[in-house]
């Protein structure tokens, strides 16, 4: 999978992509991350990328030219046939595990990070295929949401996680939240590890974990619990 990030703040991505599982995924060539500073594509003599909104109002709007030219550069240099362009915006469809699974099957994903009050609507009409939000709160820009998409998508690509890190048993599988985990020591600050986990009885352990998953989901996420029962 190749990610192509369109941003005004390219530096934000370097440290996250240089650690842990993301770093390993790049090294193993399971993912490729290309970062484009849209300011570099501005034809304005001062490299301007924003302007006042027609109709008035607060804040600035990103102008279409640098965005469109960055997009054309990406699809031409990488020979992308049916480009999927995800615009990160609080107005988008809220990201979830099912959407991450869908995106993980693509060869190329272009992530468009907005700033200021937003981007010219004509860019959305012309090139954006998906508008995605990461939740019901407002951030200052699309860079953190883009990293969240990259992370959630990458770990679903075969070979990115090791056997150990497998996503076969984790939260949101079958719309359930994950059961609690324990490790050594058996007693910590007078708190014990549940006996069943020390019993060696695999059937009982599986049943306990399943019951805990259901209990926790019902308590915290009645919306998910309803779907899990279907
Ligand atoms: Cl994708 N962008 C911004 N700026 N704020 C957000 C968001 C995205 N998702 C939730 N809040």
From TrEMBL:
Query: Which InterPro entries did the record assign?
Result: Alpha/beta_knot_MTases, tRNA_m1G_MeTrfase_C_sf, tRNA_m1G_MeTrfase_TrmD, tRNA_m1G_MTases_N, tRNA_MeTrfase_TRMD/TRM10
Residues that, per the record, bind S-adenosyl-L-methionine = 114, 134-139
Record's keyword terms, sorted: Cytoplasm, Methyltransferase, S-adenosyl-L-methionine, Transferase, tRNA processing
Q: Which GO terms describe its biological process?
A: methylation
A Pfam family hit: tRNA_m1G_MT
Q: Name one GO molecular function term.
A: tRNA (guanine(37)-N1)-methyltransferase activity
Where is it predominantly found?
cytoplasm
Q: Where's it found, cell-wise?
A: Cytoplasm
Please state the Enzyme Commission number of this protein.
2.1.1.228
Q: Does the keyword Transferase apply?
A: yes
Q: Which reaction is catalysed here?
A: guanosine(37) in tRNA + S-adenosyl-L-methionine = N(1)-methylguanosine(37) in tRNA + S-adenosyl-L-homocysteine + H(+)
Question: Which positions fall inside the tRNA methyltransferase TRMD/TRM10-type domain?
Answer: 1-227
- Origin superkingdom: Bacteria
Q: Which CDD domains match?
A: TrmD-like
* Quaternary structure and interacting proteins, as annotated: Homodimer.
Give the NCBIfam families listed for this entry: PRK00026.1 (NF000648), trmD (TIGR00088)
Physiological role: Specifically methylates guanosine-37 in various tRNAs.
Family that this chain belongs to: Belongs to the RNA methyltransferase TrmD family.
What is the protein name stated in its UniProt record? tRNA (guanine-N(1)-)-methyltransferase
Q: Which organism is it from?
A: Romboutsia sedimentorum
State the encoding gene.
trmD
